[in-house]
Amino acid sequence: MIEAPSGLAARRRFRDNAATFAARGAGVTVLAALLLMLAYLVYICLPLALPARLEPMIETPLDTGSRFAVREADASVWRLPPVEGVGDDVRGEIHSSGNRAALALPGELHVYDLVRLVDIAGQVNGVSPDARWRLRLATPGALRNLAFDSSAGRALIAYYDGADALHAIQMRFPTAGAVELQRWTLAAPALRRGRILLNATQDELIVVQGDRFLRWHLPASPGSRRALVFGGQLFGLASEVDIAAWGPGRETILVATANAELHRYDTARRNLPPLGTPVALPDRLHWIGSERERRLSALLTRDERLLLLVPSSAEFRLRAPLPGRPPAATVKLSADGSYIYSRDEERVLRWSLRAGSPDTGWRSLWLPQHYGAYDEPTHGWHPDGAAIGVLPKYGLTPLLWGTFKAAIYGMIIAVPLALGAAIYTGYFLPPRRRNQVKPAVEMLEAFPTVVLGFLAGLWLAPVLAEHLFAALLSLLLLVLVPLFIAALHLLLQRRGGLFLHRIPRLPLVLLAYAVAAVLLLVYAARLEALFFAGTLQEWLWGSFELRYDQRNALLIGLAMGLAITPVMFSIIEDAINAVPRSLSDGSLALGATRWQSLAGVVLPAASPAILSALLIGFARGLGETMIVLLATGNTPVLEVDPFSGLRSLAATVAAELPEADAGGVHFRLLFLAAFVLFALTFVLNTVAELFRQRLRYAYAGR
Amino acid sequence: MQVAESATTEVPLRRAVTRAEPLVWLCSGAVVIALTLLVTVLGLLAVRGLGHFWPQPLILLSPAQGGETAQLGVILDRENDDDGRESLLLYRGVVSVFPSTLLWLMDDEIAGRSYPDDALAIELRNGGRAFGFADSLRDTGSWRPISSAQLVGKLTEEPDLSSGMDDRALRLRLASGDRMAIPLAEIDTAYAPNAMSFTDKLGYFVEQLGSFLAEAPRRGNVQGGVFPAIVGTVTLVVLMTLIVAPLGVLAAIYLQEYAQHGPVTRLVRIAVNNLAGVPSIVYGVFALGFFVYGLGGSLDQLFFSDRLPAPTLGAPGLLWASLTMALLTLPVVVVSTEEGLARVPRTLREGSFALGATRAETLWRVVLPAASPAVLTGLILAVARATGEVAPLLLVGVAKYSPGLPIDGEFPYLHLDRQFMHLGFYIYDLGFQSPELATAEGLVFATALLLVLIVLFLNVAAVILRGRLREAFRPDETL
Amino acid sequence: MKRSLGSIFTALLLLVSAAAYAAPELEGKIVSAGSDTLGALSSLWAELLREQHPRVLVQVRAIGSGAAPTSLVQGAADIGPMSRPMSGAEQELFFRRYGYAPTAVPVAYDQISVFVHRSNPLDTLTLDQLDAIFSSTRRCGFPRLMRDWSELGVSVRQGGNPISLYGRGAASGTYSVFREQVLCGGDFAPRLNRLVGSSAIVRAVAQDPGGVGYASAGHVNATVKPLGLLDAEGRRAKPLSRALYLYLNRPPGADLGPLVGAYVRLALSTDGQQEVLRSGYTPLSRQERDVLRRDLGLADD
């Protein structure tokens, strides 16, 4: 008898505690979810801000009995199989590029695939003997200034022979079948001792000797679109040339001079014009290595310091002494930039460059860069370069610009609409009517943004383009017609003393709008012809060079306006309605008109909520994705006018994240875009919430 | 002198202007615009979407002197050039193996227009539509002439006529005069739209609408229905609700009933409000990185390591999509529930406490039932939001074509790892990527209409519920 | 009696045909993720495969070619349709993950078509002009950028009209191929409208008298006017064409596995290639298909 109640009590207490625990847990979970999101976004973005770090040196000893190559792709060491007929004591010259290595022996050349493993012994990989091609060379004398470049399906070899003739051999490795060879010879080149540089697409040789250059385009197919051989001078050099080497991605040529300057030359232009101003270096250089897939160069100064430089933005990302003092001639940078290595007969030295994303400094992301093939420094968002052997360009400024542009044009449409509708519904409509109108307006929320985007992009865009004048005129009329009615009302009152207090405003305005629409349909074309002697677009282009883009900010403003109106309307209306009626009644009793008591009493009282609504609406506009993705042309331009396009952060993320390589720079930058959106909306919403709480406290006391 | 004069006339004018209330008129204009927009967009979707299922008349255009052959088809678009000449965009169906189904025709290329009663529209099983006139039929070995009306009748009477693989075929006389043989097995339906009465058309309309809702898409989503997309959307939303409902309600209970008014509560409240304002795409980004690649990848290594490197949960799929949506809609549920709890009069709670009930019992038996309409409202709004949201799904789990439904008769019946089709994504895909946009456009409008109607229905339900709630409990002035 | 004889005969026939189809019932799920150019075609193949093997699920995600290598490397897809060959960097990524190269299977050829509004009097453009129109870099060497139709000697409306550009976004193979073959690797002008789908481009150009766009020929219909392309000497240029691939993860020496094998076999079959033709692409020749089937170990049909 006694136990039962106490057991019950214990169970009840347990349940009560469990409920408390669960509720508290849920509260904490919500907070944790927000913090987790924040933390995760930061965690992904953070490596972007970290500069590279130089790790301690790794030394791999080589046994002296065989030949070795270091794979450029990842600085791994590979033992080459012995060559029949040539003793291992004839070392030959070994060049590696990508996943292949070339061995130059007297009268012959061997190319190895450093891919197929035979065995793995310690840190050294073995090359399978069948992954080798032997090229017999019928050229006189030893090969000089050998250059070797290899990519997935092909390789290019270029060298001077003993008679100073320039040779190029292209190898193609089809997935099935024998290797195809193609050879070219330039019998008497203008430059006879130059450094040979092979371009990324392996169809051009650039020879640099002193301040002279020679370009030799290899005619792969007849009817080539470029001149074949072209020579000239590198301009702007004030001092003797120390080194000429490829810049990042082989888009530019970097030339280091004796007065410790680094010059860039644009290979996209035929005459190799200088790009931007030279970068001042702390010391003269004795080695330059550039990455193929990132906009980054590694420089070794004469005082043995390693510098990492983003040449296009002149940002230094690392300055550290390179221990080990490797001979400059043997230093190389692995293709992905994760190792710097040097080799001699006995050993391979490797310094790994850890972490970070050295090519995404603040200046590189947000400021205009002097890229190759451009006359001016530009912002560019071209994240896809890697696919075709061109470096991607990650300029975030146009995206941020577009984000704000879309939100602002959305607000231009939405604010008057939401504010007006909320004021009328919340203050002027009788409660019964209000209860019908308010939910109806809020139903605008029911249009999913993908539907709005689809309608704006496929249905509204061409209509707007064809009837731009009528559309702009109708926007104007939406404002003018109610004013016209007011004027008419005033006139009636003055003439006949007729002043109606209870007028059915909504039907009347609707009727007036309908009449205006009919008039517009009939007369718009004639008016346009009258004013602009043609169409409005032609006039804009002819007079101001203002381009009318079919996918433009005006279009986004309309669609986005529709999307953010209901949420703002809802908040503002609630706030206006929440202002105690006694306040405005008092004002009316003192002789103020309804509008005066609204403007003087109600709106100020509701202003924190209105401000908060504006901020929330703006935040919503910043993050809106589908409308911008579908209805704009996603054009990363920096233009203000309503007839040009835009590209927003959110739309970029939606379009590009599924295809970005997880963990890569592009992936992280898209996370950065998401983080920027998160941060912007976080700030806006927090401020809005503070405003709202102020309002809550203000009326809590009454 | 002049100044004084103008001042004297201005005062009454100004007063009069204030009395005429131009700004009030402007505000009422805003209301009218908002409501008109609602009706216009709905109307546009309804007309274009439903119009897609209505049989289109087939027009026969005879060529002008020296022109090409006659054309039979459906007019998709008309345009007037600067000289006022009209040109027509004609959809003429399949006319050869390699189809150029669309054709622009200038006014002066057309001599006559007619709507022949025996013009036949044939929906093909695997490739668009064919327009022509029935010529002859081979159903028992030899070709016998047949009229269009007879063919339509025959196909309705013997539905199994067009099934099975054999050499039965229909010979169609095209507008150009050429003849084209179509195996009966290829024919889905055949009808003569120009000869149809209104009731016939209505029947056809209802049938088409039915198959739109109940069938799977065909021909790379260009034909067929949206059934898998409906199922995908519904499954997503149901799963999301299962996750968000307990969490959201509990969090709201914590905020309203348990939490002291201190910094933590304020932080949680601000967190909730901020979560509501975070753009949906950010949730998608977070979910892709954290759930799919992070959590999913780890779970795969723990539980599905035998299937690696093929991921099970480490790839976009239903589970992560519904979790994302739950996170996205959490604030909606929390805010609405909190509001509901606040409206429950304190007297009710105090009565319950006075009778000796514990806090949990009071909550469970008294407060929550009283607040249940608000909870339901919140959930419905959450469902409405999730139904229309597409951006995060682009990242975490929708597929262009996925015939396997997320729920089926195979163990484990609910396939959380599967990708799924979604109505919103279907609009995006079909509207922008389908090669036959000119003809599939109606389908996009229809899907958009369906999606809007679902969301609208949910919103209206929420409004009605909210209204009930407000009537049931007069607002507590302490809010 | 006659009747039962007939039914026995039928049953025998069924048995025989069943024996001919005696392949074990395939079951399972494969994911195809990649090119949206191949998206429609992939869905068609998926439907066909489902008709043959009702218990095989093929999920098609059509985002852009860039998604294929990523998904293959992460193992999120079994098949990576791409509308361009994988770049060296992407291959390297794959290689680093698996230790061997991905297998590329060409399944169709696609031509990229350049088109204008149907009222545009222009019939041809040279490739250099195209570069000057679409790029902001002019890497092919045209002396200036073109932004007005009057610079091409045509007037689409009175008083000249700006050229509006339409194309795909960076995830698309069409974009990359156009960039490589027409822009000489340069950058597209920022004001190029990067629409999310090829059909949206056709549609936008059809509605914009000043528009010029490029898209895969399979999406181009009579609502726009395709342009002839000329090389620098005014001869008809080599068509802008590319192979469309399925990329697969096949360890050296291994076969494709039953599911992926069935899918690829279907794609290379006569039925599958018929769908290629219907989608507006150029099918592979019989010989090419035979070679591919032999290389992939699919020669048994």
Can you tell me about this structure?
The complex is a heterotrimer of chains A (702), B (479) and C (301). By secondary structure, chain A is an alpha+beta fold. The longest helix of chain A is centred in the first third of the chain and has 47 residues, at 3-49. Chain A is elongated. The mean pLDDT of chain A is 85. The two termini of chain B are 59 Å apart. In chain B, strands 6, 7, 8, 9, 10 and 11 form a 6-stranded antiparallel beta sheet that branches. In chain B, strands 4-3-2-1-5 form a 5-stranded antiparallel beta sheet, with no helix packed on it. Helices cover 36% and strands 21% of the residues of chain C. With 301 residues, chain C is α/β, with parallel strands linked by helices. The two termini of chain C are 39 Å apart. Chain C is elongated, with a radius of gyration of 23 Å. The model of chain C is unreliable at 1-22 (pLDDT under 50). Chain C is built from 10 helices and 11 strands. In chain C, strands 3, 4, 6, 7, 8, 9 and 11 form a 7-stranded mixed beta sheet that branches. Chains B and C meet through strand 4 and helix 12 of B and helix 2, strand 2 and helix 7 of C.
Main sheet attributes: strand count, strand direction, barrel closure of chain B: 6 strands, antiparallel
What is the total tally of β strands of chain B?
Answer: 13
Return the string of H and E elements of chain C: HEHEHEHEEHEHEHEEEEHHH
Distance between the termini of chain B: 59 Å
Low-confidence stretches of chain B: 1-10, 475-479
First-residue to last-residue Cα separation of chain C: 39 Å
List low-pLDDT spans of chain C.
Answer: 1-22
The helical percent of chain C reads: 25-40%
- How many helices of chain C? The count is 10
Mean pLDDT figure of chain C: 81
Structural class of chain B: alpha+beta
| Mean pLDDT over the full residue set of chain B | 80
Largest inter-chain interface?
A: A-B, 109 and 97 residues
